[in-house]
Amino acid sequence: MEANEITEVLNRPISQELLARDVARLAYVAKDGTPRNVPIAFTWNGSEIVMCTTKNAPKLASLGENPAVALTIDTEVHPPRILLIRGRAELDFVDGIPDEYLRPTSSYEMTAEQRVEWEAEVRSLYHDGMVRIVVTPTWAKLIDFETTLPSAVEELVRRREERQRA
């Protein structure tokens, strides 16, 4: 997929709404060769998806060995809206807590008091730093079930139209 095609998909209004959400599902291959799919908080900075994790997270060894990843960001309403992204994970070990991890998000709700307590807990747990998992999209597809469909469903629609014309 060409860079301009990826940009076009990611700049669509529905994609932008999904990229403003809090949680994605990160799929990768574990060290034992089996697939993993984990929910993880993320931030979109306009060109990369940034996820933060502990320095001792098992996924880091796997991502270091095989950085190919797939992400799913979706909604829980009908019709579902789904943003699928593929890319390569780059691991950025940082001292302290990355800004992306502390930045309030648009859809995860916390009271001011809860936020203070959460941030204190984060600072006490991750005092030795964290790892930023940075993914630059190399492929993207938006499925909104109104203007775009999964490719298999698109094929069924095409076949139905051919049958109806016959």
Can you describe this structure?
This protein is an alpha+beta fold and 166 residues long. The model has no long low-confidence stretch (mean pLDDT 93). A hairpin with a 4-residue loop joins strand 3 and strand 4 (49-53). The protein has a 7-stranded antiparallel sheet with strand order 2-1-5-6-7-4-3, sandwiched between helices. It has helices spanning 3-10, 13-19, 58-65, 99-102, 112-125, 151-165, and strands at 23-29, 35-41, 43-44, 49-53, 68-74, 82-94, 130-143. The two termini are 34 Å apart. It contains 6 helices and 7 strands. The protein is globular, with a radius of gyration of 18 Å.
Task: Give me a quick take on this structure.
Helix content is 34%, strand content 33%. The protein is an alpha+beta fold and 166 residues long.
Helix fraction by DSSP (H/I, runs of at least 4): 25-40%
Measure the end-to-end span: 34 Å
Major β-sheet profile: 7 strands, antiparallel
Strand content: 25-35%
Shape: globular
- Rg on CA atoms, Å: 18 Å
The total of helices stands at: 6
